[in-house]
Fold these 2 entries.
Entry 1:
Amino acid sequence: MLTVNGINVYYGAIHAIKDVSFHVGDGEIVTLIGANGAGKTTILHTISGLLRTKTGEIKFLDNPINKVEPHEILKMGIAHVPEGRRIFSQMTVLENLQMGAYTRNNKEETNNMIEMVFEKFPRLKERVNQLAGTMSGGEQQMLAIGRALMSKPKLLLMDEPSMGLAPILVQEIFNIIQEINAAGTTILLVEQNANMALSIANRAYVLETGKVVLEGNAKELLGDENVRKAYLG
Amino acid sequence: MTFLQQLINGIHVGSIYALIALGYTMVYGIIKLINFAHGDIIMMGAYITFVSLIMFNVPIWMAVIIAILICLISGILIERIAYKPLRNAPRISARITAIGVSLFIENLFFKIFGGNPRPFPVLIDPTPISLGSLQISMVTIVTIVVSILLMIALDLFVKKTKTGKAMRAVSEDHGAAQLMGINVNTTISITFAIGSMLAAVGGILYSTAYPQIDPFMGMMPGLKAFVAAVLGGIGIIPGAMLGGFIMGIAESFTKGYISSQLADAVVFGILILVLSLKPSGIFGKNVKEKV
């Protein structure tokens, strides 16, 4: 579904992503793990088009997307739950969800999707007219996920969905990720919580200072002594 | 002059400041730029109306529409040509460019029309209507009604329409808005178009109240509207509206009860007060974000 082929990404003079290649197959959960600053978020931003590759290619459903504008990439079927949630805090829960469906012009379909998101996250329904910025971290994360689902993505990029959440909420969020995947959405998950990420993923890539240093079956990596030492504590 | 009379005069000029202030505040909200060329759109609106009426003899309604359309297009072009290439540059670069654009427009009109003030044609019968001791001219009534209708329309647009919501989303977070599939460039263009349209109307109404136009006429109302936007809280739409009315009323009361010559001093004194007491403005909040 998604093929990343030898990409190099720079922040000004800083060579942030060095010749990274990986792929995500239809229906998979693939996770990118690694320490802070390894380049995980940069890779997701590059896939979404917020950052540009210097060299290399990104293909989605066989179309190169590394020169496509971000709003076009969303229309092609890639949604992104960004790090730190980045919900629109001055807008209501409902308006945030409507923004998620911005590229759709069918009002009825949008309303159906909103109902579907409310079924998945009943707490959002209770807060439908509340300003998003006044909600708790967990609720904001649910809103960020719900908002991304509004575009009915084929591929969902998730950046640190567990960040700053209480352990019980982390479990809930990971259950939801599995549900979303089971309903047919492919997922590329970036996490610092490598344990959790590996436990739900099919495959994983380990990043270190902008390079892929290890890849493999998630369950195997979870059992790998070196990985355990380096990333799982 | 009675208190009520001064109040009405204040609301009259204040509603014009409010219309102009909306453009400053919306543009600031979306790209964090004080668009110093905004005041010159006021002047353009007045001049284009003048030229259409005097040189091309079109009907008043058509002159107004032509002025609004040309200002709207100019607003979009200014952003595309002068500001867009600097979107990721340090903010000071864009600010200096904005001053440059302002000087360019003023001198372009100076070159074309000369520096002599010209009388602005009468668009609305200025004969006052007497209501007891009150004297209200049709100009005042039209100005206030048009301004308030436009403000209500803008408020509904920003709150209810998809494009209006997209504008708010882009104002909060360009990146996240892009991830929603919102075309940020288009949204910024729309913001400049709306702001310039309001400034054009403001310019025409201003010239109806003070019927003399010159290429530098936009500076004063532009600056006062900018102060109004800061007073209300820059980037906040209701703030610009309230700020505009406060400025107009303060100016009118100073003229009526203290001295006409002090009016500008009082108005800019307000800016100094706001900046030292509550720099974020009346509706401004201390920016805080949940992490």
Note: The beta strands of chain A are 2-11, 14-24, 29-34, 55-60, 63-64, 78-81, 155-159, 186-191, 203-208, 211-217.
Entry 2:
Amino acid sequence: MRSRILMLLGAAIFFMTFSTSAMASDLDSFKGEKGEIKIAGGTAHIPVMKEAARRIMTLSPDVQISIAGGGSGVGIKQAGEGLVDIGNSGKKPSEDEISRYGLHLFQWAIDGVAVIVNPANKVRALTQQQVADIYTGKISNWKDVGGVDKQINLYTRDEASGTREVFWNQALKKGEIAANANFSVSNGAMKAAISQDPFAIGYVSVGHIDESVAAVAFDGVIPSRETVKEGKYSIARGLYSCTKGAPAGLTKKFLEYLFTEEGQQIVVEQGFIAVK
Amino acid sequence: MTAGSERVVERLFFAAAFVSAFVTVFIFGFLVYYGLPLFSGGRFIEILSSPWAPHQGSFGIYPMIVGTLAISMLAMVFAFPLSMGCAILISVVSRGRLSKVIRKVVEAMTGIPTVVYGFVGIFLLIPLVRNVFDAGSGMCVLSASLMLAVLVSPTMILFFCDSFDRVPRSYGHAVLALGGTRIQQFLHVTLPCSWPGIVVAVTLALGRAVGDTLIALMIAGNAVQVPGSVFDSARTLTSHIALVFAADNESLEFKAIFACGVSLYLFTTILVLIIRLAVHERGKCGQVR
Amino acid sequence: MKGASVGRFVERAIITFSWLAGAILLTVICAVTGYLCFKGLKTMSPALIFGSTDPMSALLLRQRVFDGLFPAMAGTLLLVLMSVGWAIPIGTAAGIYLAEYAGGGTKKIFNLLFDLLAGLPSIVIGLFGFSLTLFLNRHVSKELHPCLLLSSIALAFLILPYIIRTTQIALENLPVQNRLTGLAMGATRLQNLFHVLLPQALAGMVSGVLLAIGRCAEDTAVIMLTGVVASAGVPRSILSHYEALPFYIFYISSQYADQQELATGYGAAILLLFICLFLFAVAFVIKKNLPCQVFSQR
């Protein structure tokens, strides 16, 4: 029994050293680091944050990176008040917020916001006017936009969401959102909800779209990484990380890592557009 | 042990009780303090009765109050007959082994975590409601209250059984001696005698239904509107706190959740007082014996 | 005659109705547990907890676990230990005071306040914990954020009334002669309490603590507002964010990224269900099967 455990340990240590030596050099600055980074805010950012954190924490188990959601508004506010080290935002903080809190911004990816429906829904294209009318409640049945005779189930995000703000500004042209809309707390939650409800409509970060939901062409342009990158798809925004004052120590290293070749590769793997 | 140290320990016991009791009052003070600008003047009433529209500067919690009441009352409508039926089954109709088994199951049910009910609600109940009633997303008042009914029923059943069992046996024997059945005994003797216990059980269950966060948050849909039908999505006071607490601390939006907290606190106080009164009544009933 | 047949009809109706209610309740509970087991039992394996990490190095904190429940379980365990650690001394002492010392008016007020505390929705306690954190952050130390420590304090308030009540009831239910024997033999009030009464009341008190542990382990609303996050790893300090099992279930249910993640959600739900039912069963057994004498015979 004991020898078995020793063997397992040996294997683990061997694996650790082996995998460390195979790791790209972009992570080297974290070797032997200790400490904590608290991240909160934008939910579109979470997959990239998680993957970066995973790689860093695998290399240096003494680094602890905690990731919470809440939405862009929460990210800006909590970073500004010093409650977290990095506050993520899916919209550019206002000039007032930047000067009031002394925020430093780091835009490490470009993202779009797309209308999504359940894959079982045959509607795959909507105009801006149709989307706006669906969200005000003027159009409330799928048959009015070429679908089946079923009520449209609206899904939206709360006021703290950067995704909501971008969508509201650019897709709804600041139109009203009907009060009967269900609320989802994050991009992930929106995707999960739409994938379960066959008659749902929602909006989500382009990076989050996968086979569990179907993206809807907006004014004839299919939202995808390519169309956003080429500028054809108009509802686009930057993904920001904010710090109060200039970042230092681990936080600085973390943000720098996002801009390295490996960091930007994570950005692309998670469905966003790299800035470098 | 000297008399001096004896007194010190006694003081410590008192201090512990005092601190615990003080916290209860302190919580209320804190909630009011943090929501302060909303409570000055007659604004508290205004908050309770106006709609939630942050963009238009209105931070009322009226839709959440209606949502809370709709969901919890409907839950009681489902839970009360269900619990009454089960309690009758356990303490009157079936008195053998089966009754013991059912009782054990009910007792175990009180230990099931709320979040587990919410989880099953999302993946089992919501699709069911959506497909059966063919109305909307399935995230609605009905789904939440059905799940809440399951949550509060075990407590109600156990309290019902307890108050049935408290009625002195001798009362019922008279009915049986006159040739009545056990059901007659139950209807004419046990039930009338156990009403304070029933009030306690219902009040406790209502308190749990109103105070529960997870079930409504997970399956009621959270739309900010006054629900017009049981198939409408709705938001409760508790979900509202959970959804908005991360907003800017200085904003009125944030302050409004303290209005939710204070409302829930006051509501709980009323329920506790009702329970006290009912227990008091029951005490009197016992003395008759 | 007519009256009798109406009576019989009512009787039949009540009996049918009660069986129906029982059947509905059992069906529902079987559906809930059955559905979870059907979907989740196949995920039950060491990989559910440790993911692709080697269990030994995970337990020794040498390596982080990313795709397993280990950090959430560790977080819940620490949270429970800390909250119970706060609540047991205060709750027991308060319960003793209520049962043994408090008189008339004081007792009434305390009883009312503890009933109120017990009745407060957990989200209200959470909101209190959150505003307390803001207060401390602003007025005491900028280093204080929502964290494990503050969550455990808020949770302690949630379970305090349980512990107070069970202690009080366990003591008050002791037969009067047990209470008097010690005193008659010349013991002081406190000696009598520690050497005679508390050992006898222990079974009741322990079962109360176990129920409180269950409450801590399952509560989501309090910790949601006071520092739990979806991704943090095993906490390295009591001032850091942490993960917890019930929050993980909540989080996964609404925002799972893929079917595999959802499967761990089912696994976590089963795990939490079993933990809570186990605690419940143990509390039940202690209460029923351990008569006072077992403890007092030492």
Note: The beta strands of chain B are 52-53, 58-59.
